[in-house]
Amino acid sequence: MSSPARGYTHGRTMVNMRVGLADLPPQPALPDGFEAVPFDFKYDLAVLDARNDTFADHWGSTVYQPDAWRHLVTGSKDFRPDLSFLILDGDKVLAFVLSHFYASEAEATGIREHYATWVGTREALRGRGVASGLLGHTLRAAKDAGFDRSALNVDVDNAHRALGVYERCGYRVDDEWHVYVLS
């Protein structure tokens, strides 16, 4: 509900999505010619470049600088490089899924939840099944690693139709939240 009298209007609707891994549905395969490569820190800045490029036209997105990227994402104690995967062309990252696991949350809930915190595909590969194939690969790895479910969040009006990618991998909307902006 917007509150124009206070100067805020509804800007976006975001959803949290989850998929159970015990009964994970069959996952989309990567298209022929593409291979999921495990994350390696030698690609850290190349992933950052791909992230900044992929999210450049997303509502509210800003460019990450290397220090912030390392602090908040790949240098976080919760980052799971073993459950993060890339599609490469030489040293250029074309697509990525970066994963996190919050042990304190698992202790509190009893649920080992894998978070697909960053999922991105460069424009040249969009619409070819690369994102859903790479995410499917990641979900199978998370299941094999003993996780109970996977979660992510997304803007329902995402310019790249990401909601459909996630639904193809079995994610369903669990709850939603709203972003209000000063008008």
Task: Walk me through what this model shows.
The structure is a single chain. The protein is 27% helix and 31% strand. It is α+β, with helices and mostly antiparallel strands and 183 residues long. A seven-stranded mixed beta sheet has the order 2-3-4-5-6-1-7. The two termini are 14 Å apart. It contains five helices and seven strands.
Largest sheet: 7 strands, mixed
- The separation of the N and C termini measures 14 Å
The unreliable regions are: none
* Largest beta sheet: strand ordering: 2-3-4-5-6-1-7
Overall helicity: 25-40%
Shape: globular
Order of helices and strands: EEHHEEHEHEHE
Number of strands: 7
Alpha plus pi helix count: 5
State Rg: 17 Å
- Secondary-structure-derived class: alpha+beta
How is the quaternary structure best described? single chain
- Mean pLDDT across the residues is 92
- Strand percentage: 25-35%
Question: Quick gist of this model?
Answer:
The protein has 183 residues and is α+β, with helices and mostly antiparallel strands. 27% of the residues lie in helices and 31% in strands.
Question: What does the secondary structure layout of this molecule look like, with pairings?
Answer:
Blueprint: E1 8-20, E2 37-38, H1 44-54, H2 66-74, E3 85-89, E4 92-101, H3 103-109, E5 113-121, H4 130-144, E6 149-155, H5 162-168, E7 172-182
Parallel strand pairs: 5-6
Antiparallel strand pairs: 1-6, 1-7, 2-3, 3-4, 4-5
